[in-house]
Design brief:
Rossmann fold, Cit_synth/succinyl-CoA_lig_AS, 14 strands, 7-stranded mixed sheet, 35% helix, ligase, tricarboxylic acid cycle, CoA-bd, 305 residues, nucleotide-binding, alpha/beta
Length: 305
């Protein structure tokens, strides 16, 4: 099982003819993703040539809009490789087309543009699940990749992973590669994002094949504290967590636009305490966090043996 993405999803790429779109379309196809076309209004009616996972040459049609691509291909998922200045329009176009899943990889989208797109999606009834922006996307190992996560880190398994950080997503997948993952989802580190820790944790709780949840947070905001409250009230599966930024200085933005400690809140220590109060085991480093997850998984396998 998986959350949000599986081998049956039909994927289009907004910005399929650009440098990043071209590169990652090829990698997604290699991962087995069912990419069915792309969108670029200036190159509508053309095709792009790629190779699928079986080594076959595929000609992917380029459409003038998301709505047209959905109509012609039956696509239910889009990934946007669009520069920051044009990302708001690309997101709004996908929302207007009511595509069920949209992954926005782009880093550096102005916060006011992300806030506008988020509010617009709410106004339209939230028919589109947005993952991102500024994220690595989502991967269901062995089935589909919609994003930039390397597809060869690990295989299928019982761990559900939700993370603010792309790099830490990859590290955690590598650390626990011998167990494998149901789905790994990078939600992004911007102040305004679509899918939250809580959204992913809720879906993992409902997924029968996900046996343990690993969540990675970072300083800034209160997303981890809200996730802790949700876990305490609603989650029965074991949850292991890590919060990046224990040594970050107050008032300085750290990498992600959302990763800034303001006076009175957003510290790694406060987030760790909230998570531990909810019964989440929190590691001081990514490797220590992986070790906590490993201990739980090994005990579970012994118990079921």
């Amino acid at each position: 099982m998986s959350i949000f993405l599986n081998k049956d999803n039909k994927v289009i790429v907004q910005g399929i003819t650009g440098g990043e779109g071209t590169k990652h379309t090829a990698l997604m196809l290699k991962a087995g993703t069912n990419v069915v076309g792309g969108v670029n209004a200036r190159k509508a009616g053309t095709t792009v040539t790629h190779t699928d996972a079986a080594g076959n040459t595929v000609e992917l049609p380029v459409f003038g809009s998301v709505a047209e691509a959905m109509e012609k291909t039956g696509a239910d998922t889009s990934i946007a490789f669009v520069p920051p200045a044009f990302s708001k329009d690309a997101i709004v176009e996908a929302i207007d087309a009511e595509i069920p899943l949209l992954v926005v990889i782009t880093e550096g989208i102005p916060v006011q543009d992300s806030a506008y797109a988020w509010a617009y999606n709410v106004e339209k009834g939230e028919k589109t699940r947005i993952i991102g922006p500024n994220c690595p996307g989502i991967i269901t190992p062995g089935e589909a990749l919609v994003g930039i996560t390397p597809n060869n880190i690990t295989g299928k398994g019982p761990i559900g992973l939700v993370s603010k950080s792309g790099t830490l997503t990859y590290q955690m997948m590598y650390e626990l590669r011998d167990f494998g993952f149901s789905t790994a989802i990078g939600i992004g580190g911007d102040p305004v994002i679509g899918t939250t820790h809580i959204d992913a944790i809720e879906a993992f709780e409902k997924d029968p094949e996900t046996k343990i949840i690993v969540m990675i947070g970072e300083i800034g905001g209160d997303a981890e504290e809200r996730a802790a409250a949700y876990i305490k009230a609603n989650v029965t599966k074991p949850v292991v967590g890590y919060v990046a930024g224990f040594t970050a200085p107050e008032g300085k933005t750290m990498g992600h636009a959302g990763a800034i400690v303001s006076s009175g809140g957003g510290t790694a220590q406060a987030k760790q305490e909230a998570l531990e109060a909810a019964g989440v085991k929190v590691g001081k480093t990514p490797s220590a966090t992986a070790a906590l997850a490993r201990e739980i998984l090994e005990k579970a396998s012994i118990a079921s043996a």
